[in-house]
Amino acid sequence: TYVRTPSHEDVVIFGGGxxxxxxxxxxxxxxxxxxxxxxxFRNRRFRIIISEGTPDSVxxxxxxxxxxxxxxxxxxxxxxxxxxxxxxxxxxxRAGYNTCFELVGMRKPFVVxxxxxxxxxxxxxxxxxxxxxxxxYEEDLSAQAIARxxxxxxxxxxxxxxxxxxxxxxxxAQALAGMLAGERRAFATVD
Length: 191
What we know:
Number of helices: 7
Order of helices and strands: EHEHEHEHEHEHH
Radius of gyration: 19 Å
Helix content: 40-55%
Strand order of the largest sheet: 3-2-1-4-5-6
Strand content: 5-15%
Structural class: alpha/beta
Largest sheet: 6 strands, parallel
Shape: globular
C-alpha cells in the first residue's frame, strides 16, 4: 500500500496492534473528534491508523464522525509507519513500548492513551513525569481530554526531559569487541 508521508502539519494516531474490543472502540471514536477541540491542532490533518481487526461497525461509526481533516486507514507497513511518525507534528498512540520509545528518540510531542494494563499505565506515568508526552487514561478518555493533552504536549512537563542514551547498539558492539579481545571488564562499561 502506498502511503504519502505526512506533512509536518499532520497528527498521526495509532490505535496499537490488534483491535481489543469495547475500550479500543471508545479510543477510536474519541480520537475522530479530538481535532475539533484542540487549539494548536484544530486545522491539522488527523491520520488515524487502525488495525486490520477493527470491526466494520466501528469503522462505520468513526466515518460518521469524520470531518474533512481526518483520514482513516488500515494498518500500514513498518517502514511507512516510521515515515509517518517522522513527518508528524504530533502523535497519539497507545502506550506500547516500541512506539513510545521511538517517539522519545524522535523528540516528537505525543499523547499516550494506555490500555488498562499495569505495564502500559506505568510507562505512561513515567514518560509524563519525566517530561515526555502526556497521558490520557481510559477513565478520563474523551475527545476533549485528548485535545487538551495534545495542546499541552507542546510544552515540557516541569521543564524536565527523560535522559535516555540511544547509542546502545554501538556500545554493545564495543563491549563485545572488547570481550572477544580478552578484556574481562568489557561489560562493566555498558550501563
